[in-house]
Amino acid sequence: MSAPAPRTRLPPGFPASWACAWGQDRSGLWQAFALDGVVQRLRWLPPGEFRMGSPAGEPEREPFGHDETRHPVVLTRGLWLADTACTQALWQAVLGETPSRFQGGERPVERVSWEDVVERFLPALNARLPGLEARLPSEAEWEYGCRAGTETPFAFGATITTGQVNFDGNYPYAGAPKGEYREQTVEVKALPANAWGLYQMHGNVYEWCADWLGDYPREAVVDPTGPAAGRERVLRGGGWYASARWCRSAARLASGPGHRDGYIGFRLARGPSPGPQDQAGGAGEAG
User: Which helix (H) or strand (E) holds 233?
Assistant: First the structure.
């Protein structure tokens, strides 16, 4: 069962100078920025511990995916994580273009590579909003937010339906009933958020993370950032075309940093970077 984010402690510098609105609700603290009328809300994920990866008995895990060895992770610094994947409206406001296959301002931007995000979008966004210092989340930060305090295969529990997640309902999870196959993305808030107020961490589009792909450690780690180098960047969350197994909280995919496709997008983070990620745009103090 998921637990709401703590609400008793305010992070340093809250609200930030770039925030156009802020508040607190049952899912925790939030603040938002606006650019040319496009508003993006970010949720506060406080420091914490969780078990990353999946247990050996979790249905439909390895051997077909990448390493999911379960291991303890400590995140010593909180971060702000966007409550939705980056929308086409925000991408348009920052870069003045519409690369996506499935058009719609409130749909997630897709057909964007890791290089597009890190080398073009982030520097342009951060130049427009001094102090925001947006970045991509680390893979550990992403899974921390996706799980929202749970240890089940999904933040919603032991399985999912197409009323909760946009995936190919012809391929449900672990014998669950079949569901709808939409064959396209949906708007970023069209389906329910998890307990921490984060929408569609499962399904709709895969999301780029900062890390190079690598095997997991077998012991507890603090603020992990993945390998120092590699060939592929991590993708998380599953997508509209994927079977339910790829939408699990622990499921991992990866692709070359120049790869673009109609099922790949991203989600913004900001806050102290957990380590050197070779990202344009930098990282600032929380708040």
Answer: strand 233-236
Look up tokens 């032991």; give the residue.
158
What distances in angstroms separate CA 208 from CA 100, 112, 224, 254, one per listed residue?
16, 9, 16, 8
Locus of tokens 């989600």: 267
Do strands 221-222 and 71-75 pair parallel, antiparallel, or not at all (unpaired)?
parallel
The β-bridge partners of 50 are 73
Residue of 271, 268, 266, 192 lying closest to 236 (CA atoms): 266
Q: Six-digit token pair at 64?
A: 């077909």
Nearest Cα neighbor of 199 from 164, 232, 160 is 164
Contacts 24+ apart (CB under 8 A), 85-90: 85/109, 85/188, 85/199, 85/200, 85/204, 85/205, 85/207, 85/265, 85/266, 85/267, 86/40, 86/121, 86/265, 86/266, 86/267, 86/268, 87/38, 87/40, 87/188, 89/38, 90/35, 90/38, 90/40
Helix residue ranges, H only, the chain: 88-95, 114-115, 122-128, 139-147
Pull the structure tokens for residue 263.
């099922």
pLDDT digits (tens, 9 = 90+) for 44-90: 999 999 999 999 999 999 766 799 999 999 999 999 999 999 999 99
Write out residues in the chain with pLDDT < 70, as ranges. 1-8, 63-64, 273, 275-287
* pTM, rounded to two decimals: 0.93
Neighbours of 76 (CB within 10 A): 11
CA 208, chain centre distance (Å)? 8
The pairing of beta strand 269-270 with beta strand 21-25: unpaired
